[in-house]
Amino acid sequence: MSGFPPGFLWGAATSAYQIEGSPLADGAGPSIWHRFAHTPGRIANGDTGDVACDHYRRWAEDVRWMHRLRLSSYRFSVSWSRVLPEGKGAVNQRGLDFYARLVDHLLERGISPMVTLYHWDLPAALDDRGGWLTRDVAGWFSDYAELMFKTLGDRVPQWATINEPWVIVDGGYLHGVLAPGHQSAFEAPRAAHNVLLAHGAAVEAFRASPGPRAGGRIGIVINLEPKDPFSSSEADARATQRADAQFNRHYMDALFHKRYPEDLAEVYGEGWPAFPSLDFDRIAQPIDFLGINYYSRGLTADDPEDWPTRARKVRNPAAEYTALDWEEYPEGLTRALTWVRDNYTSIPLYVTENGAAYDEPDTLDEDTRTLDDPRRVAYLHAHLRAVRDAIAKGVDVRGYYAWSLLDNMEWAHGYAIRFGLLHVDRSSLRRTPKTSARFFRQVALSNGSVLDAEVPRAEALEALPT
Ligand code: FCB
Hints:
- There is one protein chain.
- The chain is of the alpha/beta class and about 475 residues long.
- Helix content is about 40%, strand content about 15%.
- The strands form 3 sheets. Strands 1-2-3-4-5-7-10-11 form an 8-stranded parallel barrel, surrounded by 5 helices.
- β10, α14 (about 375-390) and β11 (about 395-405) form a beta-alpha-beta unit.
- α7 packs parallel to α9, α8 (about 165-175) runs antiparallel to α9 and α13 (about 330-345) runs parallel beside α14 (about 375-390).
- The longest helix is centred in the middle third of the chain and has 24 residues, at about 235-255.
- The two termini are about 30 Å apart.
- The site of beta-D-fucopyranose has 12 residues, from loops.
């Protein structure tokens, strides 16, 4: 008994700016990430997405890899400014054709696409008009969404509107470490509200559009991080509440309870505005599934210096940490999934991202056939068991997507941080399967039964077919 229901989707996830490269090819317009990466000092090592994994040209090879991995689904994002160079108005047919070819190819291989409409790469032309800070963005986004439903709706069964509102807002508008790089406690809650409004508008467009095929489904992807107090002090308990409100409940309360948590007024102080209550009807449109991205938890201590939450993330001396300094905490995934079911919704859930980065070489010898990554195998094994535990507790989880198919551009960290099942050589761009790719293939082939056994060693895993 594997513990995973029949038809459970085994997938890998990527995003456009992180893998495609050729950001301005064939008539595409620049995105805020193109601009950000070309601003000195923004990205480690001066890296940009100009080449990335060259997936824009190597997509057919990458679909072959997915097939070798026996993936039943692939989650990728559309670059908005590839299909609408100015963000609205004139359509770039060559951009649309790229995604149509990709989808057709996936379907021919029996791989079900899950398409994310927005994975952080706002068209730069729309940023010039206010970007996520103006309510107009909801209309721009739903027009773009409608174009995609019309173009691919007959073939794509699952759509996600937005990837990780928290990161868009916290990285882009509060701390400024991600595009467009603003730092403002005044802007952040407004940007968050407009991101949520845009999501709601796209769901409305989906319901009204003749594009989507019968049974086509739409949802959103939220990243969750359970927050735990570092000590038993009252101050740490309150800090944990604030951190939880700012990270998790901000978006979940809006989407499922039509409100924002009261603690946010405390977090944002005078930056916190009054929002029109009618907006919540739009934000909380019924959706068909919820995607959850999970990487770690947040052990939290009170810290008056931490702006604006006054809640600092602290290290757990007893835990293992990944290359991004994220605590490995598999139980957190079971907790996140049950927390959603217990407090918010019983719609189907998908783990739309989960994975880990470890130090690995930039280049491999040409004759290298595989790269051993035992820690990633152990990480995936533990987290997949955590998903199975949630299913055993009655949570309706329908799929799991490893982050990521390929080593790719990890945003402000550039290419130094590697999350892939497939290693991507930075000079030749050659793909090499890691042990984790072989492990994940066995997981998919056995619908999770291999998780009954302990973490396998590389020698015990079949090589990927050629
Ligand atoms: C998530 C992002 C994804 C990737 C992983 C490591 O927050 O959605 O693009 O960067 O983290």
